[in-house]
């Protein structure tokens, strides 16, 4: 019950931050990533393996942790939705040569058709039977406008899966 109350407080906090300038703070991206993957691991099918590798070294970044955690959870949830049956979601993070932090969320789902890749962040775009597709467009806004980063489809192959990459 305490976890649920804390979680509801976090959700309310996220909504209050969207639309206003969020408070950025020094954070370790490893903590944000591992927190989001731990949370999502308890909420997905046991047929889907969720793996996270954020390395051993801290990944310092100026961020709004609640909003960035939401971005991670949204990408993981979309990856879950792309997998029918058994599958794997891998979240990998590190620091590239340019000292930028990267996060990759890869799934073994249905993949994205090449013609749709340019639309995946467009508001209202979805291939799902339910929903209206605001998640990725909001994730893009949070990453790019609030965290001065980028988010894009790194690779996708129909029938094999998709990898999203974030750089901050």
Task: Report on this structure.
The structure is a single chain. The chain is built from five helices and seven strands; from the N terminus they run H-E-H-E-E-H-E-E-H-H-E-E. It is of the alpha+beta class and 168 residues long. The strands form two sheets. Strands 2-4-5-7-6 form a five-stranded mixed β-sheet. The chain has a two-stranded antiparallel ribbon with strand order 1-3. Strand 6 (150-157) and strand 7 form a beta hairpin. The protein is globular and about 40 Å long. The mean pLDDT is 89.
Secondary-structure element sequence?
Answer: HEHEEHEEHHEE
Shape: globular
Q: What is the averaged pLDDT score?
A: 89
What Rg, in angstroms, do the CA atoms define? 15 Å
Query: Given the helix and strand composition, which structural class is it?
Result: alpha+beta
Major sheet strand order = 2-4-5-7-6
Please give a quick description of this structure:
The chain has 168 residues and is α+β, with helices and mostly antiparallel strands. The protein contains 5 helices and 7 strands, in the order αβαββαββααββ. The strands form 2 sheets. It has a 5-stranded mixed β-sheet with strand order 2-4-5-7-6. The protein has a two-stranded antiparallel ribbon with strand order 1-3.
